[in-house]
Design a protein that fits this description.
The chain is an alpha/beta fold. About 40% of the residues lie in helices and about 15% in strands.
Amino acid sequence: MTDIRRIAVLGGAGGIGRALVNALVEGGDEVVVLDLAASLERHSLDVPSVAVDVLSEASIGTAMQELSSRVPALDGFVNLAGYNSRIQPLAETSSDYFDDVIAGNLRGAFLSTKAVMPLMAEGGSVVMVASGLAHFVRPGYGSYAAAKAGVVALTKTFAHEWALTVRVNAVAPGLVDTAFLRGGTGRSDESGESVVSLEAYRNAIPMKRLAYPDDVVGPIRFLLGQDSAYMTGQVLWVNGGGYMP
């Protein structure tokens, strides 16, 4: 890899994404953000950006073509894209909603990671963002938990298959205080009520608070860097002690 790292952040206009982009740029990295056009319009960024919708394989392909024209090779790729706007029992969940959550969180992760691989430099690092719900399931989050459990499985499978060239790991946060709790960046007005009872959540966490974006940025940067050079197929759980596997 070159001394100056080139890193693409999918979902970089979201709450965690903006904090990550700022930290990477301050560290001297060249960053390109991929996100929904609505998200990029709402949150201006001082780095190059490419519009993409992970629900569309064609959109992902077009975005990767544009990305390849901007950077010769990527040293890092972070997949932060995802959303969940309802909490409801699985038995009351419509197939349309289930399919949408699977498409946005799991299928999109599969398609985007598969599409970015030809752009990755040897020795590069891919960081997926899963969720504590992937293993620590709770009532009401069945669709999202299933999708994020799939992201963990994708992470480990890609890690096996690409072990000689690219490392693939995941960060699995608990609740983070971002627009995600209000329907998602670019997929909601970002100002509504949280879909989660935040007081009840805080009381259930040993550290008694939600995560802030910077709490997730650190683990992602660690997995992108050489301090984690002998790690692949791993999941870092970031949840204030709410889940201790």
